[in-house]
Write a structure and sequence with these properties.
With 441 residues, this protein is α/β, with parallel strands linked by helices. The protein has 13 helices and 13 strands. The N terminus is likely disordered.
Length: 441
């Protein structure tokens, strides 16, 4: 390494890197042999058109720009094997730059001009909160938001919206208990995104981490890459454990700031900011633009995180084998990392819902399918979906980054988003279907 670089230089390099264009968007379906009638906007005899807003550029693009491409790859796989009830899935995902103003424009166009059947996996807490009221007012199914904000679980207020990943309060509780049990009495600091993402995570952490142990609470705003003052404040607090509820770019920026400050505190990182492949690339890119050459992977070894999906590093899992098969056929330009696994797993769940919605799906039948079915898949814990709950996965399993993988530890835990206890979950995920496609509803 060519010495230590200034955080300001790293931040400047990061700002350049964060504007790099991500994966290309959009997809077009082909005609098939479906015989169903047009039963709703976006549904024809041969196609179902769905849409999404995604951060293909901007501060959340590193890593997250892979998710929509991975989902499309799985939909392409399903389409090549007959589609759903004879229809091909047309997936239109559009860049919003992780900018809420752009999100509003993108989603309005998808609904009013493209007339999509549903919005699928719209990514981001600060972005999707700007369109959730609109989608529900328009009665457009808003399935499996790519964010763990507790705000998606409001079945009364937002009956068309469903979460998917473990919400941040549940995740915070699980990480908080781990910190309490593993690092008793040690000084703890928080570094988190200053919106519902980070704030929900902190709510969960505070249910288990003793208040007397928390010596610093620092936040950041997406787009402002100068996090030097926050890192300095945490170092001066003498925190021995730092918990991050951060998107990947800010996990990497904080880790580089630790190096600059010779700070050796243990990092505990929310799932959304801990993909090993993404972090390795970001650390090396940011350091290079800051004037240094490093190997990023050694800097993430031993990070504590969690997972609610079978980790993609588990080659023995039939789900990982399925995702690798799809990846090798449709997505060879991207690594098979956690973001790709996430996109394919969410797409699998959407196909389950579309199957269960019936041969002539309506928007209501799609919502009813999620509320009334008991979906399974590559999750380590069950879903919470019901008429009363629109939350997704009910818990997670703590893991440690080793080499380029998250290695889960102990048992998966389930809980609620309130004051309920953490409970071990002992039922393993079912095997993936032999043809890789969920059975018809």
């Amino acid at each position: 390494m060519k010495g230590l670089w200034a955080v300001r230089a790293v931040a400047a390099g990061a700002a350049i890197a964060l504007t790099a264009t991500g994966c290309g968007g959009g997809g077009s379906g082909s005609s098939g042999g479906g015989s169903g009638r047009s039963s709703a906007p976006g549904v024809t005899a041969t196609t179902v058109t769905i849409g999404s807003h995604q951060p293909l550029t901007g501060p959340a693009a590193p890593g997250y720009s892979e998710i929509s491409a991975a989902a499309k790859a799985y939909f392409d796989y399903v389409n090549a094997n007959g589609g759903v009830h004879g229809r091909k899935i047309v997936y239109k995902y559009v860049d919003d730059g992780y900018n809420p103003t752009q999100t509003v424009d993108v989603v309005h166009k998808l609904v009013l001009q493209d007339k999509v059947f549903a919005i699928f996996n719209g990514l981001g807490t600060p972005t999707h909160t700007k369109v959730v009221d609109y989608l529900n007012a328009q009665r457009v199914p808003d399935l499996f938001v790519a964010s763990g904000c507790l705000c998606w679980d409001q079945a009364g207020k937002h009956p068309y919206t469903f979460g998917w990943q473990t919400d941040y309060v549940r995740e915070g509780k699980i990480l908080g208990q781990y910190i309490k049990n593993t690092y008793p009495g040690k000084k703890v600091a928080y570094f988190y995104q200053n919106d519902d993402f980070g704030q929900d995570g902190v709510k969960g952490l505070d249910k288990y981490v003793p208040a007397a142990q928390v010596v610093s609470r620092q936040t950041y705003q997406p787009g402002n890459t100068d996090i030097g003052p926050q890192a300095q404040a945490i170092a001066q607090s003498k925190a021995e454990v730092v918990v991050l509820f951060t998107i990947p770019a800010y996990t990497a920026l904080f880790r580089l700031a630790q190096v600059k400050l010779a700070n050796k505190a243990q990092l505990v990182v929310s799932n959304v900011g801990s993909d090993p492949t993404t972090l390795t690339g970001l650390l090396e890119s940011f350091a290079k633009k800051g004037g240094a050459t490093i190997k990023g992977n050694p800097l993430i070894q031993g990070m504590v995180t969690d997972s609610y999906l079978v980790p993609v590093g588990d080659a023995s899992s039939s789900w990982v084998q399925l995702f690798k098969k799809v990846h090798d056929q449709y997505l060879t330009n991207l690594p098979l990392d956690g973001n790709v696994g996430y996109g394919m797993a969410a797409a699998y769940t959407f196909v389950q819902a579309l199957q269960a919605a019936g041969a002539n799906p309506t928007r209501k039948s799609l919502v009813d399918a999620v509320e009334n079915q008991h979906f399974t898949g590559p999750g380590l814990v069950p879903y919470a979906f019901s008429k009363a709950s629109h939350a997704g996965f009910t818990g997670a399993q703590v893991g440690i980054i080793k080499d380029n993988a998250i290695v889960v530890q102990g048992q998966p835990l389930t809980t609620d988003a309130g004051d309920g206890p953490l409970q071990p979950y002992t039922t393993p995920p079912p095997a993936a279907p032999s043809n890789g496609i969920p059975a018809g509803g």
